[in-house]
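Note to self: the last two entries modelled the partners one at a time, which told us nothing about the interface. This time every component goes in together.
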Amino acid sequence: MSDSTSLSPVLAVAGVAYAYGARRALDAVSFEVQKGQCAFLLGPNGAGKTTLFSLITRLYDAPEGRIEIAGFDLRRRSSKALARLGVVFQQPTLDLDLTVMQNLRYHAALHGLGGREAGVRIEAELSRQAMYERRFEPVRQLNGGHRRRVEIARALLHRPELLLLDEPTVGLDVPSRLAIVDYVHQLCEEGRIAVLWATHLIDEIRDHDQLVMLHRGRIRASGSVAEVLAGAGAADVGAAFHLYTEAKT
Amino acid sequence: MRTMHAWRAMSGIVLRELYRFVRQRERFFSALVRPLVWLFIFAAGFRSTLGVAITPPYETYIAYEVYITPGLLGMIQLFNGMQSSLSMVYDREMGSMKTLLVSPLPRWFLLTSKLMGGVMVSLLQCYVFLGVAWLYDVQAPWAGYLLVLPALILSGMMLGALGLLLSSFIEQLENFAGVMNFVIFPMFFLSTALYPLWKLQESSPLLTILARYNPFSQAVELVRFALYGQFNLPACVYTSVALAVFLGVAIIGYNPSRGMMQKKGSRL
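The predicted structure of the combined assembly is written out below.
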């Protein structure tokens, strides 16, 4: 994004296009996210957000364009790139039949973490989410907010450089939402990580965040909140979103 | 891919399958009850009408229960393979499959590890079944219980790979009933699990050919011979080739650039 172009981006999306048959879901999508930035991906339903996330997580490949994570080409060096990526999907992806600990150990194993190291990191991440005391409970017994906290702990367990969040606060109560929004912003402010966050909830965005506005598969605007507002001549993000996407917020 | 990373990941995937299996007790009991019903009821009912002549690897006349025990081991593995397939489709619909697919390991390795997890679960089921059958006086030589292990691993992998392959084609859980009708039942009944080929030959030469080339028949014969301390080379080769084909096509099916993953799109 504009204010840090001299740095190597943690996420670089360049000219990415994707189609489901004849329907073009993404067209020439390009943007970057730097370390320490919290970038919000805004767009109405059907804008192409989930498709974009599926491509960045390499659930399937982009036939056109290039995606790099921490400098690694996602297609050619997918293992290196994916090792630097943490994801919280829109749909909960924890295994309900397993305990919190078993879910996290499974994730740690997939990232090659040894038993002792995994144990230390699990304790640290769960403690940050105030979930360590509940580590032996089956996930099925947790409420939605607690499950999301575990998912965030899991996404950070292997210390990724890029965190992808696909509408992680949908369906949560206000305190749970605020806790997640605060925590993720804190991670960015500490400069530990770059975040790409897809959301419909504009009140989760803060003044120093970055915005990527996606509509009908194309980027309509991107940059800091101030830049996007200035470009749109809008007073707030809601008005800018309305202008760029012709959608009510 | 580093060796230690690969080992930890495979262990993690296998452990997860075992944890899930232990937690789903109903699955364990239903997996065990199904072949036991066949052994205790079906075999008892048919033993007088379905006499089995001396046929390799048996060296004498055997009770029908003895004949169908390897077939029932195959049944356990066939159903377990399909259960894995169902669980893959469920995981994909529920989203938990994504956790596996976005991990930094090659897709072929992840699928093979998942397959190994399913095989471990099926081995547990098979040995518990063999234990119950032993109590029921269906006993193989002691060495057979050890020698059958590699055969069960190979047959379990082949049937699990078939499940993986099917899961790459099935887009919704609702479509899974078709697998029962078009895969499990034909494979099981058109095989040597319940009757030897020569018995089938008396009824229909065409069915005999189909049964002979049914990969499930070959897996059952591999297990049958191993349980009696003999190695069936043709069955081993046939089962290995079937494993390679099923797994290869499944890996293509889950390839992010080429397979059915592309078609499934955002539903993944």
